[in-house]
């Protein structure tokens, strides 16, 4: 089991939360292995298709045996039933697109990290009161780094991860970290439809290392 504190540290140390879903379990596994080889130690698999739960069970078994340092969570969890299923399957953390207090309580009781999605200050305040370890800001490209700068001081100690539209570029990533986020979430900008369709693991490996380098340099500047 990966505790809430361990997963928070892994995300903040890495500065990147890659997320993806693919219908084929074997290809999903190769994506996870490639990200791991590139240096990634936290991944969010998303609950975006009917195959998600069965695929996740395959992934978590291999992760626990081959990649014990990897934190593998599940995203797009929208209700208690889904949360129960994925916690039972061994998820290391739970990411939600919205705030559901029952889901939050369930994840807290399991000793895992709960990351709800927020857009407005009111939503952030609700998640903050519910003791969300990290809050996902979505869609990030609409909110922008200036939004984080404006609201973060209202919620002392709260960690934020913007997701949706974060670009793999030094100016964009530096802007986010300068605003005070602890990491950036990346889906299709990193693990594109083309990479998945063509099983282009070499490109994914190179792009992931480039992204991690940009993040590292952004934190220095």
Strands, total number? 9
Task: Assign an overall shape.
Answer: globular
Mean pLDDT: 97
Annotation field: number of helices: 11
Helix and strand sequence:
HEHEHEHEHEEHEHHEHEHH
Regarding quaternary structure, how should these chains be classified?
single chain
Look at the helices and sheets and give the structural class.
alpha/beta
Helix fraction by DSSP (H/I, runs of at least 4): 40-55%
Uncertain spans, ≥5 residues at pLDDT below 50?
none
Strand order of the largest sheet: 3-2-1-9
- Report the biggest beta sheet as strand number plus sense, adding barrel if it closes: 4 strands, parallel
Distance between the terminal alpha carbons, to the nearest Å?
A: 35 Å
Alpha carbon gyration radius: 16 Å
Strand content: 15-25%
Describe the structure.
By secondary structure, the protein is an alpha/beta fold. The chain has helices spanning 4-14, 25-37, 52-66, 80-88, 101-109, 121-129, 140-143, 145-151, 170-179, 193-198, 201-220, and strands spanning 16-20, 42-46, 71-75, 93-95, 113-115, 117-118, 134-137, 159-162, 184-186. The chain has a four-stranded parallel β-sheet with strand order 3-2-1-9, sandwiched between helices. The protein has a three-stranded parallel β-sheet with strand order 6-7-8. α2 links the parallel β1 and β2. α2 (25-37) crosses α11 and α8 (145-151) runs parallel beside α9. It is globular and about 45 Å long. It starts with a helix and ends with a helix. The mean pLDDT is 97.
């Amino acid at each position: 089991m990966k505790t809430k504190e361990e997963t928070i540290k892994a995300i903040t140390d890495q500065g990147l939360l890659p997320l993806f879903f693919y219908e084929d379990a074997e290809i999903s596994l190769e994506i996870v292995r490639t990200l791991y080889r590139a240096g990634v130690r936290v991944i969010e698999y998303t609950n975006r298709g009917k195959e998600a739960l069965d695929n996740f069970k395959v992934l978590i078994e291999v992760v626990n045996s081959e990649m014990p340092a990897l934190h593998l969570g599940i995203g797009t969890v929208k209700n208690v039933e889904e949360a129960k299923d994925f916690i039972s399957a061994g998820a290391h953390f739970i990411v939600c697109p919205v705030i559901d207090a029952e889901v939050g309580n369930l994840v807290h009781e399991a000793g895992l990290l709960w990351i709800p999605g927020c857009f407005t200050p009111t939503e952030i305040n609700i998640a903050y009161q519910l003791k969300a370890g990290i809050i996902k800001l979505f869609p990030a490209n609409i909110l922008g780094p200036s939004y984080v700068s404006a609201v973060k001081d209202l919620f002392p100690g709260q960690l934020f991860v913007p997701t949706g539209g974060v670009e793999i570029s030094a100016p964009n990533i530096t802007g986010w970290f300068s605003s005070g986020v602890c990491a950036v979430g990346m889906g299709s900008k990193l693990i594109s439809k083309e990479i998945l369709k063509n099983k282009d693991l070499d490109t994914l490996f190179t792009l992931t290392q480039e992204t991690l380098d940009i993040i590292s340099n952004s934190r220095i500047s």
